[in-house]
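Long-time lurker. I teach an intro course on protein structure, and each term I like to show students one example going from raw sequence to a predicted 3D structure in token notation. This year I'd like something fresh instead of my usual example. Would anyone be willing to generate the tokens for the chain below so I can use it in lecture? Attribution to the forum is fine with me.
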Amino acid sequence: MRTAVVVPNWNGRDSLGDCLDSLLSQTLKPHIIVVENGSSDGSLEFLQTNYPGVQTLINKKNLGFAGGVNVGVKQAIADNYEYVALFNNDAVADKDWLTHLVATLESYSEVGIATPKIISRQAKELDSTGEMYSIWGLPFPRGRGETDLDKYDQHTYVFGASGGASLYRIDMLNKIGLFDEDFFAYYEDVDLSFRAQLAGWEVRYVPTAIVHHQIGATSSKIKGFVTYQTLKNLPLLLWKNVPWAIMPRVWPRLLLAHTLFGLRALSRGQFSAVAKGYIVGAWLWPKKLVERHRIQHSRKVSSQYIWGLMVHDLPPSAKALRKLVGRL
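-- Reply from a regular --
Happy to contribute to a lecture. Here you go:
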């Protein structure tokens, strides 16, 4: 069970030490690969001085989360590892985090991804207990913001895995492909989980594998980043993965949600982020339709199976949309 852990880093020097120390203290020792993703804050020098034994791969520019982790995953594949985990540079793992994830993949051959319980660094609220996908075309982390840390303590199958701290079976990645670099950041983990589900793999939530995460530490550094990536990526996620048989039940809902999100962003003055999200998303749409053909052609599960995996409600955080729908 040779296992590598890939840590993408972009200007995360202040949190990188705690992250790496937690990985070096794992009861199951992994090979650690840090992908230095074009930082300008001295991260590379910090790594070379304090962690000379950690393998570091250097990108001259920021390739985003998807592009950054793919560099590390490709290295793990080339080095014949069986499993590869992704780990955010602003996260800290409990010492048995990896042991529990690996044990799950060892025990369940049908499981391609094992995902942990992710808690805020202050241990006051949940961040993710598995990623879900709504019939509104909206992904969301199960349990985010909830303060009952013991609520989701049952091992269970979920729709998707958080890219921030999950373990992937390399045999699965060789079959379905790596992270979609056109997403850059946001929902690339749900996209890969969706492709895994369509190909017949399952995703399992492992509550005994615990990670503490500083929520939003990277995305908050760039103005309008979340708005741009959300508007660009949500339609791409749908067009690639949602089977045609259930598209009429999902697409109109996403169109309403997507429009409302764009209007709310405009009301906050995020004109350039909104325009860029729509323009780049439209430009990528034909490419994603081509990819869709390949993904759906190799699909091994029914449309009804996927429909059954979805949450038949709005995400808990979609309060404005829920209020609007209640008025219609």
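Some talking points for your students: The chain has eleven helices and twelve strands. The chain has a mean pLDDT of 95.
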